[in-house]
Model the fold of this input.
Amino acid sequence: MDGTTASAPLLRVEDLKTHLPSNRGPVRAVDGVSFDVAPGEILGIVGESGCGKSTLCSSLVRLLPKGTQVSGSIRFRGEDLLAKSQEEMRALRGRDITMIQQNPMTALDPVFTVGSQIREVLKFNSPLGARERLANAIQILRQVHIPSPEERLSNYPHQMSGGMKQRVLAGMATALKPGLLLADEPTTALDVTIQEQILGLLAEIRDRLGTSIILVTHDLGIVRRLCDRVVIMYAGRIVESGVTADIFAKPQHPYTRALLASIPKMGDTRDRLQAIEGTIPDLRDLPPGCSFTPRCPHAHARCSEAYPPAFPVGSGAARCWLHATDRVPETAQ
Amino acid sequence: MSPDPLVRAESVVKHFHQPRRSWRGAPQVVHAVDVVSFEIRHGETFGLVGESGCGKTTLGRLMLYLEAVTAGKLTVAGHDLANMSQRRELDYRRSVQAVFQDPYGSLNPRQTVLDLIGEPISVQQKVGRAELRERVSELLRLVGLPAASLDQYPHEFSGGMRQRIAIARAISVDPAFIVLDEPVSALDVSIRAQVLNLLKDLQGRLNLTYLFIAHDLAVVEFMSDRVAVMYLGKMVETAAGKDMYRKPLHPYTQALLRAATATTPPRAVFQDVSLSGEVPSPINPPSGCRFRTRCPFARPRCAGEEPLLRDAGDGHRAACHFFEEIAAAA
Done:
């Protein structure tokens, strides 16, 4: 692949493995994941609970429990994040790589006003003086469309609704024009009409600041609406990746297909849904070969022997033996 | 189908009183459900949609007789819930059951599956231990759980399987009506379909009537024969499921559908309504139409006069002064 093109990726993750410690042996939460994020791109990471998508997010900013084993490489603007010291990482977090959490109710400190929390971000990360910080904080709230921002600065988090808090958090996360914003289920705790507003805000942030966004979600509808590209995760691995429209139009991996078929759609006249039988495997004790094999309708002998490599299909890739061009699967270009 | 509906609500009101903020302040009243009328027919699934705080769960709890109605008349399965004697309550509990959202909170962690599912049965009738085991095994088979689960505890099961246990418990006393309050929202996408299919199968087999409460419009469409949309304690639109989704009349329904038509390309037969602002407080709801503060079509009349549910044909009713006009402009 030509690595010298103008659009070098902002983030390149290669063969990332994050194994979390547990009493019953390591949990292979992220197990050999590779993907790129281009500047200004919104990448969706989709999967069910326990597929490793949140651990993947925490791995990128290296906020992991003690005893976690991480290997592989995470290159952000060409620098390997796994080689950085904790000090250097701290300088990066909140400035170049920021995060919006799932639950806006707990992400803000209840004993400080919203204004002081925004000013704190500016204080530690920018050379502004106190008066400029205040002006800047008002500007930040205005940019995330909070009405009468001057008054809102003196509000405590409990005086705001969930949607409003999520706006404040989005404002704080983009205050210093970061290169990468990690949004981990940013709308899951919100109502649909508020969710709509927050998704609009994320798109606006990307357009205004050129920030790349990694959007972690279990909701395929959100992905369809917002993301340029998607990766689908199952049991710690990426099973399929590609341009959003292609994934929805022509899913290549049996899991992606089953996932799409199991969701009721508006205007659907089916009387029954196609359920995926069985449950997600235990990440401490994965079956050999492809971890989707026990639930897969297309499983054959080869699937339980070895984990398939990523076969290129269409705009993306799928890790499934169905796409092996049986003669030379490993060296297929 | 019998002519009498299973559930009939006439101007049902539920207010919650909150302690006054200070000794001089007026006591605060939360208008959770405010003058709501509807019927649920035998054997149908009645879907109830709305955002959090719209009163859909309160309405469900009223039907379960977990809350008492403040005013109005609510009849469920032949029982008048405004004045029910204790003796009749046991019979009522047999005919009306519930499945709740969170299968982690709704099952007692210290009870085995046998006790969990068997308890409602032994409350209702005298059954020997051996017969109880047999009947619970039969229920487990019905909801697709292995018979070996009988002596296991809830923590040994995944969320989807727990919800199956909760469903088995609900059908154990052979009810006529089940209130399903967000039964799949806590479950993973790949598990949801299994549970929804199970609910549909059981309905056909056991001749059940469902109240299906959810915020996910696509799931409600899949499950329901008729759908009602609630906003801030009011029912703003009700229709047969397919009519509601094909031709929503109320601007709020249109906005909800727009926000939800994400996994399928939107069918642009209605106006592109996108909402700004947030749901006002149910303590002090807006005058007139409660939706007017967020409605892009609001006019002076909306503030002065409360719109009532009006029929647009085929039992499709909407509470908006201007729905004909809005539909014509689309």
